[in-house]
Write a structure and sequence with these properties.
- This is Molybdopterin synthase sulfur carrier subunit.
- It comes from Desertifilum tharense IPPAS B-1220.
- With about 90 residues, this protein is α+β, with helices and mostly antiparallel strands.
- The protein contains two helices and five strands; from the N terminus they run ββααβββ.
- The protein has a single domain, classed as Ubiquitin-like (UB roll).
- A hairpin with a 2-residue loop joins strand 3 and strand 4.
Amino acid sequence: MSVTVLIPTPLQKFTNNQATIEATGNNVGELIDSLEQHCPGIKSRLCDESGKPRRFLNLYVNSEDIRFLEGTETPLKDGDEVSIVPAVAGG
């Protein structure tokens, strides 16, 4: 199964400057592990020490925030699009 992952500019140094890559996984957690295999070092930027997505990153599956779905257990299917979006703060 192939999933398109949209990579934000700050993380593209791990993907050879590619803004989109294809990866596999039955759920978001497996997808992150797949990304780490192909783009070493990216998982530590996406996840904390316990393996949960960092709080300053938002992950979306087909425009749905995984925090309101099943978190890293959110299932994926062929053709899904996962967006990695850094949180923006200001004041």
